């Protein structure tokens, strides 16, 4: 599996762009919260009630993937829009890596009619069939849906694959295990990706799983499994490439575990009081993005000004997407019943 210079540069570009989006959104959210707090008597609370009560334009909770960009960027370097990628509640980086347009994504986060789900779903319904991406806030729900996509690719002999991203906490859900079993049995073209950031909100992986290395779960289901530290971006890229190639060949699923780092709270506004002293600093020191940038600069593949230009371009794109979202209308009340299936 060749990890060409072009592919590596593309992965760095995606990581920089995803980081810029997440930081931009985090700043907007913080501004809106401060504004609302000042306007409404200094009361504070972390979750959706707060947003509803104080009319924060960002709808609901925001859960950023800052620190976790390497894994989706590496995986999507091997995917086309015809391949399916299922994300979690922390999936902006995956959406960007998969090619979801950020203007419609931000419009959905702002609950606007121009959003990916017409403003009905918010951050947890960033469905974009054109780029082959969707996410859900129901932990691990899309694992079984990914199997359906893989089954369709297999039956129609398209050569397409389905990838599904799952958090370390969500990986304990029954549906993940049932899906791994069935995918291996039917040799479905699936890649299971566990983003192990060590926490499910405030619950440490160590308190929810007896297995330290979650890729150990691949073997009993009959598929290859591997664990990669996400700072080893090149290894992430080649492991992802092998798993995707295996799926495309018809040899069945793989499980990739990435040890990654959640550099923000479980949600914006999370005080992270549950983290031991110094842990966040250690996590920041393990941030894959600056390390990979330095590596590619050292190798002469890019230079610092290239990285700065990509970042500046991404910030300008974010600003444009924000204008689009903020100037878009809310859905008309009379359309409220559209898109319902029950
Ligand atoms: C089925 C289901 N159970 C519980 C929740 C509540 N919940 C939201 S985030 C979360 C933790 C997820 O942790 P992890 O899978 O490790 O993802 P991370 O937040 O670390 O990215 C939980 C339990 C949910 N959204 N869906
Ligand atoms: Mg986690």
UniProtKB/TrEMBL annotation:
Q: Where is the Dehydrogenase E1 component domain?
A: 63-334
Q: Which cofactors must be present for this protein to function?
A: thiamine diphosphate
Instruction: Give the matching InterPro entries.
Output: DH_E1, PDH_E1_Alpha_Subunit, THDP-binding
> From which residue to which does any coiled coil extend?
none
SUPFAM superfamilies from the UniProt entry: Thiamin diphosphate-binding fold (THDP-binding)
Give the signal peptide, or none: none
**GO molecular-function annotation terms?**
magnesium ion binding; pyruvate dehydrogenase (acetyl-transferring) activity
CDD domains xref list: TPP_E1_PDC_ADC_BCADC
One GO term (biological process): pyruvate decarboxylation to acetyl-CoA
Q: Which segments cross the bilayer?
A: none
Q: Which UniProt keywords apply?
A: Oxidoreductase, Thiamine pyrophosphate
Pfam families for this protein:
E1_dh
- Under which name does UniProt file this protein? Thiamine pyrophosphate-dependent dehydrogenase E1 component subunit alpha
Biological classification of the source: Bacteria, Bacillati, Actinomycetota, Actinomycetes, Propionibacteriales
């Amino acid at each position: 599996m060749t990890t060409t210079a072009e592919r590596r540069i593309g992965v760095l570009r995606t990581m920089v762009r995803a980081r810029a989006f997440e930081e931009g959104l985090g700043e907007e959210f913080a501004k809106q919260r401060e504004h609302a707090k000042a306007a409404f008597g200094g009361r504070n609370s972390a979750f959706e009630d707060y947003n509803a009560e104080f009319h924060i334009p960002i709808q609901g909770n925001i859960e950023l993937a800052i620190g976790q960009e390497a894994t989706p960027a590496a995986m999507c370097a091997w995917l086309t829009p015809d391949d399916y990628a299922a994300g979690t509640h922390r999936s902006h980086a995956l959406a960007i890596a998969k090619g979801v347009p950020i203007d419609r994504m931000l419009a959905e986060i702002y609950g606007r009619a121009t959003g990916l789900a017409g403003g009905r779903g918010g951050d947890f319904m960033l469905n974009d069939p054109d780029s082959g991406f969707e996410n859900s806030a129901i932990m691990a729900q899309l694992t079984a849906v990914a199997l359906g996509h893989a089954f369709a690719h297999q039956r129609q002999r398209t050569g397409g694959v389905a990838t599904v991203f799952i958090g370390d906490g969500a990986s304990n859900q029954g549906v993940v295990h049932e899906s791994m079993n069935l995918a291996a049995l039917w040799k479905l073209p699936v890649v299971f990706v566990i983003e192990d950031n060590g926490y499910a909100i405030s619950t440490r992986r160590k308190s929810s799983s007896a297995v330290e290395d979650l890729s150990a779960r691949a073997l009993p289901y009959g598929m290859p499994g591997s664990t990669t530290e996400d700072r080893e971006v090149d290894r992430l890229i080649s492991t992802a490439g092998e798993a995707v190639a295996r799926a495309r060949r018809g040899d069945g699923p793989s499980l990739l575990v990435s040890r990654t780092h959640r550099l923000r709270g479980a949600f914006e506004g999370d005080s992270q009081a549950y983290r031991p002293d110094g842990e966040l600093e250690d996590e920041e020191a393990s941030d894959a993005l600056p390390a990979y940038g330095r590596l590619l600069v050292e190798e002469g593949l890019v230079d610092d000004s290239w990285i700065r230009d990509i970042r500046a371009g991404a910030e300008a794109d974010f600003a444009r997407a924000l204008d689009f979202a903020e100037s878009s209308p809310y859905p008309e009340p009379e359309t409220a019943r559209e898109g319902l299936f029950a």
